[in-house]
Amino acid sequence: MLLFSIVLYFLAFVILFRLARFFTTPLLKISGYYRYYSEFLFIMKIGKQKYDLHLGTSWDFFLNRLNNPRHVLIELAKGIKKLTEEIESGKLSPQAVFRGNTFYLKRESASKFGFSFRKLNFIEWFLFFMNYAELSLLSSIAHKKLHFVPVSNIYIIYATGEELIKNKSKFDRFLNRSREELIIEREVKRTI
Asked: Which one-letter DSSP state was computed for residue 96?
């Protein structure tokens, strides 16, 4: 009975925390605590020259109708490109480290864009599992079907501002190619 109560309190805490995060997103965005670089990509300062990369909150996903996986990746690339421009302009240090917990990028893609990766530590796994239900919900919305986040694809990506700048042209190429594919896809849909 005690174990059941502990589990129940923990689940209630997780749900309340997620709801609080949902409803505070606009305030955190306006205050500048969440610094957005595209519709979905934002950073949060977590230390001196250390930033967490985030690919949107549930608030962002529910308000944005174009939240399919391709659009989300395009917004990621757009956001990283704008982030590199801010680093180049001197607003952020080239030595700053940007890190994020990701399941939406394959390791090969992360490496191509200049990110290194590592496994999650115990605390990061704990935080990930606190977010698992919400992440799976957002992933389901993006895929427009029930989609559980694959736990085997979870890792931390990280790069310095300097590394992101070195790979800026790769984000540009990805954006151009993705935009062309979207145009072709829309044209095909119109002709059908």
From this structure: -
160 φ, ψ (degrees, to nearest 5): -85, 165
Site of tokens 């990280």: 158
Question: Token digits for 89?
Answer: 């302009």
C-alpha 167/C-alpha 77 separation (Å) is 11
Q: What are phi and psi of 54, to 5 degrees?
A: -130, 140
Q: What 3-state class would DSSP assign to 114? A: coil
Reading the chain (192 residues) residue by residue, the pLDDT tens digits are: 777 788 788 778 878 887 888 888 888 999 999 999 998 899 999 999 999 998 888 788 777 766 677 777 888 888 999 999 999 999 999 999 999 988 777 788 788 788 999 999 999 898 888 888 888 887 787 778 888 888 888 899 999 999 999 998 888 888 888 777 766 666 666 666
